[in-house]
Amino acid sequence: MKKTKHLFSLVALVSVFLLQAQRTELKGKLIANDDVEGIHILNKTASKFTISNDKGEFTILAKASDTLFISSLIYENKEIIITQEHINSNTIEIKLDEKVSALDKVVVGKILTGSLESDLENSDAKTEINFYGLGIPGNTKLPLTQNEKKLHDADGGSWGHLGLGFGVNFHKLLNKISGRTKKLKNIVDLDDRDRCINRLRVDYESIIFENDSLAKNLRDEYFLFSQEDENFLSLCKEDNDIKLLEFLQQKLIAYRENLDSANNN
Questions:
Q1: Which H or E element spans position 57?
Q2: Domain residues of the chain, as ranges?
Q3: Class of domain 16-95
């Protein structure tokens, strides 16, 4: 009888610990003076992600001692440790501080006179060039890479006429027939994949492996495995880091399964 009582007590104690360790849906609200929609909320401890709605509200799985990381373009990044009080009330409010752009230096003594020529010489202001206002062609986009220039050249060229009432772009046609255009497109796609994965490594590698012990010498192989996925490039072009982080987490699980399978064979 005593053994049975002790067993029930032990089971009850374990159940309490398990309930405390389980993550529950925590309802949060971001407080700020400006737009609070589309702000990224990351549970760094559990590798869970979500985005706030137009009222700054969000829901995320969490438990006591988890760390939330709030990331935004217009607000300062913020880290919050979830307490047992948050879990008990099932709510959390997080006040965001607007980013302030500090001036590198203040220069005193340069006085505007009203003379355009004089004031331009005394001013340090740098304005964006308006090519069209100057009456000359221009482009504010990023310059093409060397491989993008090659692709642009292969897919361009002028039209010629065969005397049959229609024109033919021989340059473009020959490059397609020879496979040069397709080869260059593949090279440009590979460049885009490399740029995207390198940015993700710089920004999020520490978060991805915060709770994972994958050896450093295998991480390069894991990231290569991830960027070779057929959906990776389209995800990069969406410019949604939440989706990309979820994708990388899934690829990490798949990579580990492949690794375990290879080690067991």
A1: strand 57-62
A2: 16-95, 146-264
A3: mainly beta
